[in-house]
Each structure stands twice: as C-alpha cells, then as structure tokens.
Prior knowledge:
Layout: H1 3-18, H2 22-30, H3 46-52, H4 55-70
Amino acid sequence: MSNIINEQILEDLAQEIDKMSGMAIVNEVLGRSEPYSSVAPGCDSWDEFFSLADMNSFKNRLMKIRFEEMSR
C-alpha cells in the first residue's frame, strides 16, 4: 500500500478511537475479556488509573494494533 493510503487509514483509525471511551481503549489494548473489563487494571478505580495512565500512548498502541490486524 502507498503511504498516502496508509496515512488515510491511520487518520480514520484515530478518529474512530477518539470516539471510544477510555475504558474501552484500555480493555482492547490489554486484551481484557468481559468479566474483567469493569475493573481498573492495577488500581482501585478507573479514576485512579486514568490519573496515572498516558492515554495518548494507549490510543497510539490501539491504532497500531488495529492497523497491523488489517494487514493480515
């Protein structure tokens, strides 16, 4: 694929991910199943987790994961 097409795909993924909740992003990046998705990873609450987490990093990781899945 060309760089122009890849850039458009990444922009579309970024827009899609920006519409997601923080919990959904973290759960998808970490591959957490439904029973664990309501519990914050490694913290007492989601508020505590979000105060410590770099959400831009999680969004970038999710974009990379989804982009790589598209090429399989």
